[in-house]
Amino acid sequence: MHRIGAVGRGRIADLAVVLGVLAVAEFAITTGREAGASPRNWFAYALGVAMAAPLLARRRHPLAALYLVGAALLVFYAVGYPGFPPALVLAAPLYAATLLGHVWPAMPVPAFFLAAGADVSVRHGLPALDTASVFLPQVAVVVVAMLLGALVRSRRAYAAEVRQRLAAVERDRESDAARRVTEERLRIAREVHDTVGHAIATITVQSAAALRLVDRDAERVREALTAIRSTGKAALTELRGTLEALHDGAAEPVGSRDAGLHRLPDLLTAVGAAGLRVEAPDRLDEGTVLPRQVDHAAYRVLQESLTNVLRHAGPAARAEVRLRATPGSLTIEVTDDGVGAAAEPAGPGGGRGLAGMRHRVEAVGGSLHAGPNPAGGFTVRAELPREES
């Protein structure tokens, strides 16, 4: 609708300009009483139409319209019909040419007519004051038409630039929103992976132990089943918190807010109950303060590393956890001897745990290195900053 309205207004403006030029020519031809002027006839009116008709094309072909109008005007003066100020006819095409950026190619037309008029005045001995009074208004009309075209062109260019900037901002906003949604999905996927993966690995190992001991050691079977129940309840609590956060639109699941190094003793107890022997000779001082995101990432790295030991090295393996804090960083190192048999083979899609750990660590500005040891076993080493990045 806006486009149709603009086209309609443009056609009305074209018609008004053409009728205005025709009126000027008609008035000059009809009322002209100059000495020696050619008598009015059909050719004079035809030249008037020739001066007005090209203006209909001034928006698409401004230079061609300007030069055609100039040519018709030149013939009109050359034949000797009663004259009128050329600026009245040239103003519209000059404005259109300047508006579309053709300033210098348009200059010869008004310059020619003004110079020719001044030469005629000098040859006829017209006083300088009279010449100035005749030509200064015409110069003013030409200058105003071109300045107005340049001003409108500048305003349109500025408006177009503003629109482009707004469009770019909108695209950036949409891209940022999409990126945030993707990051949130990945974060929730990591939370679910860490919570459920750790629980399932522990439950699997405990179940295997219970099956082996079901006919021999009822007390150890009871301990294994108790550990399974405890692990399952903890996993369900965290999973329920994640789902509630999704439902309520919370910034972070409840279980995620609780996941930190203060839960390390419970984690060591859980994996110990599954049969994994874990030593933790280096612990953090009780007064050690970590940013919440760093604390959370550190706990998840420990949880995933010990879960991987359970899954791939087996409950007969031994693991060592070391935590070292300096004024600027926190170092986490989990090493296993790799002597146990794998409790469960890695299924399709395995290996995402390491990628998830690396993403967590890098998200807070740290680095992670993981790989086999020369003497056997596996080591995960994470360097985390003491300040959030």
From TrEMBL:
Record-linked InterPro entries: HATPase_C_sf, HATPase_dom, His_kinase_dom, Sensor_HK_TwoCompSys, Sig_transdc_His_kin-like_C, Sig_transdc_His_kin_sub3_dim/P
Chief subcellular location: cytoplasm
Enzyme class (EC, first level): transferase
SMART domains linked: HATPase_c
Catalytic activity: ATP + protein L-histidine = ADP + protein N-phospho-L-histidine
TM annotation in the entry: 12-30, 42-57, 64-84, 134-152
Subcellular location(s) of the protein: Cytoplasm
Gene Ontology terms, MF aspect: kinase activity
Record carries keyword 4Fe-4S: yes
Pfam families cross-referenced by the UniProt entry: HATPase_c (PF02518), HisKA_3 (PF07730)
Domain named Histidine kinase: residues: 300-388
Region: Disordered, residue numbers: 365-389
Task performed by this protein: Member of the two-component regulatory system NreB/NreC involved in the control of dissimilatory nitrate/nitrite reduction in response to oxygen. NreB functions as a direct oxygen sensor histidine kinase which is autophosphorylated, in the absence of oxygen, probably at the conserved histidine residue, and transfers its phosphate group probably to a conserved aspartate residue of NreC. NreB/NreC activates the expression of the nitrate (narGHJI) and nitrite (nir) reductase operons, as well as the putative nitrate transporter gene narT.
Name of this protein: Oxygen sensor histidine kinase NreB
Organism in which the protein naturally occurs: Plantactinospora siamensis
